[in-house]
Design a protein that fits this description.
35% helix, eight-stranded parallel beta sheet, 15 helices, Urease, subunit C, domain 1, alpha/beta, binds fe (iii) ion, binds N-(iminomethyl)-L-glutamic acid, 22% strand, 2 domains
Length: 414
């Protein structure tokens, strides 16, 4: 039986573009005032203006009056490291005292610290910690998520992470995509033997991951002190040979050539982009690759924000994601990501919402299932508290304006 949602003050995101929105298209967020929405079999069955609602309440098992509330497609968080062990708040304090992210990494902290903890944690415990994090994010409005490996850096550790992602996917109820990020850092056992670690990734990890069908995408941290553009392209080519399309970390700390390497490798997305120059922007704008901006990572590391306006004006397709991880963004709250994008990167509310929903869906290949209000898509929805307008959502940052969420059409309690 179907559920009828009535008196929706604003139903936003009523579109189904055939490719990621780019340039000026990003500001167009179609919406219906005073709307209804019908959920059937967990999916969006119909929607329109209240004045045109021809069905009667008895046709539905449930009718819910949403007077004054705004309904949006739920957030599509296309870049996270949600599976990790423990936390790194001691480094957070070191950063407050003045150490940089790169200095912490160079003395064995950072990614390597998370790798030590991960390799000491059982698969069951890792699953328990990860699922608890995801359940919190779903309550905050996330309705699809991409999760990376990359804190194992050993064959066993990487496979353990990807198996945990698979278990999380089986119990989450929302679309989950898995990305293999073996090339996140050179582990200490391979210090001075980069080629050996890259060979381990391409010759041992990838075949096993492919055989078990554990990943949808491949990622490389293309950055000074981590992996070069050449190494990135080689690793991406090995991934492509087993059917994994790249989604890479590029231009976070330096203008590294990562954007160009990603575009050459046919990446679905190049992510971070704090450090851009005209050449990288032009390359991205002239490609089908999505630029995924991670403003909470820039916020947490006190780095310059991604140049969203320049990228939009150059005609790039951009998405917003949380980068949820223990080192540079220990929060997966997409409401805050959207607020920061508006406040610090001068994205319009409509642009930020599109970037965090439909373009996020494209950036992880789930655009046919989620990311907008369209008949046949999953009814993964966000219902706000009573708010005066859409712009109030990013404006009133940090105030917890998501009243309830629907996952597969199941509307949670307010
Ligand atoms: O996306 N930049 C590389 N990877 C993560 C940070 C990982 C960590 O510090 O644990 C990021 O910011
Ligand atoms: Fe990341």
């Amino acid at each position: 039986m179907a559920t009828l949602l009535t008196n929706i003050r604003l139903l936003a995101g009523t579109h189904a573009p055939s490719r990621a929105l780019r340039g000026q298209e990003l500001a167009i967020l179609p919406a219906i005032d005073d709307a209804y929405l019908i959920i059937e079999g967990g999916r969006i069955g119909a929607f329109g203006r209240m004045s045109e609602l021809s069905y009667k309440a008895p046709d539905f098992s449930q009718t819910i009056d949403l007077g004054g509330r705004v309904v949006l497609p739920s957030w599509c968080d296309s870049h996270t490291h949600l599976v990790f062990a423990g936390s790194r708040e001691a480094e957070f304090v070191d950063k407050i005292r003045g150490l940089s992210y790169a200095e912490i990494a160079a003395r064995g902290g950072g990614i390597l610290a998370s790798a030590r903890m991960l390799n000491e944690t059982s698969e069951d415990e890792l699953y328990r910690q990860s699922l608890a994090r995801l359940e919190e994010l779903i309550r905050l409005g996330t309705g699809a998520i991409e999760i990376k490996s990359g804190y194992g850096l050993t064959v066993e550790g990487e496979i353990k992470m990807l198996r945990v992602i698979r278990r999380v996917k089986q119990s989450a109820g929302i679309p989950v995509k898995a990305t293999f990020l073996g090339a996140h850092a050179i582990p200490p056992d391979f210090a001075g033997n980069r080629a050996g670690y890259i060979e381990l990734i391409t010759q041992t990890m990838l075949p096993q991951i492919a055989a078990e069908g554990l990943a949808d995408y491949i990622d490389v941290f293309c950055e000074q002190g981590f992996f070069t553009p050449d190494e990135t392209e080689r690793i991406c080519a090995a991934g492509a040979a087993v059917g994994l399309r790249p989604k890479i970390h590029a231009n976070q700390l330096h203008v590294s050539g990562g954007v160009q390497a990603g575009v050459r490798a046919g990446a679905l997305s190049v992510d971070h982009l704090e450090s851009m120059d005209a050449e990288a922007t032009k390359t991205l704008a002239g490609s089908a690759t999505i630029g995924t901006l991670l403003p909470t990572a820039a916020f947490f590391l006190r780095m310059p924000y991604q140049p969203a306006r320049e990228l939009i004006e150059a005609g790039c397709a951009i998405a917003l994601a949380s980068d949820f991880n223990p080192g540079s963004s220990p929060s997966g709250n997409m409401n805050f990501v959207v607020s920061l994008a508006c406040i610090q990167m001068r994205m319009l509310p409509e642009e930020a919402i599109n970037a965090a929903t439909i373009n996020g869906a494209f950036a992880m290949g789930v655009q046919d299932e989620v990311g907008s209000i369209a008949v046949g898509k999953k009814a993964n929805l966000v219902v706000t508290k009573q708010i005066p307008s859409l712009a109030y959502l990013p404006y009133s940052f940090g105030s917890g304006l998501i009243e309830r969420v629907a996952v597969n059409g199941e509307l949670g309690e307010p």
